[in-house]
Write a structure and sequence with these properties.
By secondary structure, this protein is an alpha/beta fold. It has one domain (2-169): P-loop containing nucleotide triphosphate hydrolases (Rossmann fold), CATH 3.40.50.300. It is 29% helix and 26% strand. The chain is globular, with a radius of gyration of 17 Å.
Length: 194
């Protein structure tokens, strides 16, 4: 099984913890306490017949905790960046999160933009979010999710896993195992692949 570290980032109250818990447990809790510092979940996902274990790091959205964020981003293969469709400030706050992630050496190659809380009334123009999506070259699709209804929650993490595989690993034509893109030989069977 392939293991990947992923981070989930966004402003306070955008629904990061609810999204992760809904994905990990299949349940939605109406009253979720704000994350203090960092929280952690693991979950297996199967992407294109490849089993992946996602180590999911959930970060507090409050500004006072952002100093800790870069140390946890290090070594991550992917990031889900969330904004709340019912809160315009949460979209603007993404610029800070993107800057923090981009400032980390070896920052995640795969970043996906998630529209959270699509079960609520939209106050953010989709065009504004698409502008950020294109400007920062997010991977995959800009996906709307609802932790309350469960809509697209599984799909968001599957898309993240698929994009990480595509951007980080290649499949050996000889043995069929995945290994890092930067290697010229398969680390499992030794076949030259380039």
């Amino acid at each position: 099984m392939i293991k990947f570290k992923v981070v989930v980032a966004g402003a306070k109250n955008v629904g990061k913890t609810s999204l992760i818990r809904r994905y990990a447990t299949g349940k939605f809790e109406i009253s979720t306490l704000s994350t203090i510092g960092v929280d952690f979940e693991t979950k297996k996902v199967v992407v294109d017949d490849t089993e992946i274990l996602l180590n999911i790091w959930d970060f507090a959205g409050e500004k006072k905790f952002r100093l800790l964020f870069p140390s946890y981003v290090s070594g991550a293969s992917g990031a889900l960046m969330l904004y709340d469709v019912s809160n315009k400030d949460s979209l603007n706050d993404l610029y800070d999160w993107i800057n923090v992630i981009s400032s980390v050496p070896n920052s995640p190659k795969t970043k996906i933009l998630i529209e959270a809380k699509i079960d609520l009334k939209r106050k953010v123009k989709r065009e504004d979010a698409l502008e950020i999506f294109e400007k920062f070259k997010f991977k995959g699709d800009m996906l709307g999710t609802s932790s309350k209804t469960g809509e697209n929650v599984e799909k968001a993490f599957e898309m993240l896993g698929r994009e990480i595989l595509k951007n980080s690993l290649k499949k050996c034509p000889n043995c069929g195992k995945h290994y890092p893109l930067e290697l010229k030989f398969c680390q499992y069977c030794g076949s030259k692949t380039d």
